[in-house]
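Response to reviewer comment R2.3. The reviewers asked that we include at least one raw input/output pair. We reproduce the pair for HTH CENPB-type domain-containing protein here without editing.
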Amino acid sequence: MKLKRSNFRVKCDKDRSLYPVLETKLTDWITEKREAGGCISRFVVRQKAIEIRITTGGPDLPQNTIGTIKQFFNDCQNLVNKSGFKPSNIVNMDETTIYLDFPSNYTYALKGSKRVKATTSGNERTRL
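Raw output as returned:
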């Protein structure tokens, strides 16, 4: 007779959630809707979860693009001045990428959902 495992999860008493406040608010919202007699379906919860997530989008670059560039050059100049290097001794500077809009690859969705659709503009991860 072959032994079969009925449960593949390891039980743990420690709370391993990354964002306990967010999860608590979502749980409270679901409980509140159920107590009020509202319809709670996967579609409704998924729509609420999508409304909560951070999205990026828009056809233009951020408004502070020029300020970001100026700040980068000021930081470089301050570093050179602070370290005491002569500008003539600086031969090469690493090509550092500066992202103007760098959204996360991850978001929260309900357990069991396969995809989360995000509206993007094509300017994500635009760099200098």
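Residues 65-83 form the longest helix (19 residues). The chain has a mean pLDDT of 70. Further pairs are available on request from the corresponding author.
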